[in-house]
Amino acid sequence: MRRPLVLTVFGWFLILAGAVGFAAHFPMHRPWHSDDAWPLTLELILLTAGIFILRGRNWARWLAVAWIAFHLAISFYDSLGKVIAHTIILLIFVAILFNPPVRAWFKAQSRPRVPEP
Questions:
Q1: Helices 100-110 & 5-25, crossing angle to 10 degrees?
Q2: pLDDT tens across the length of the chain (117 residues)
């Protein structure tokens, strides 16, 4: 079974967003501070989710949803606009990662492969 195109595009988007976010948060022109660890960790989580979504690991799609849900939760401490934006993004993640063709592909990937005689 071939990976759905929407999942391929989405996985590469997560990889790109995680890599760009990591580069943007990396302290290049100042000394390292412990506050730098959280944003970098979150970007690495996104990057990891994208890589393993493309590899067909079911846990990775849950990781991606947890990542955006975490962003939604912390946006409640910021502004209503960010809450609305993160809610919409969460709904998009869920719509992409849990639609029937994507679910079927992940299910097929989790089956053990038995070599043919």
A1: 80
A2: 899 999 999 999 999 999 999 888 787 667 767 777 888 899 999 999 999 999 999 999 999 999 999 999 999 999 999 999 999 999 999 999 999 999 999 998 887 766 666
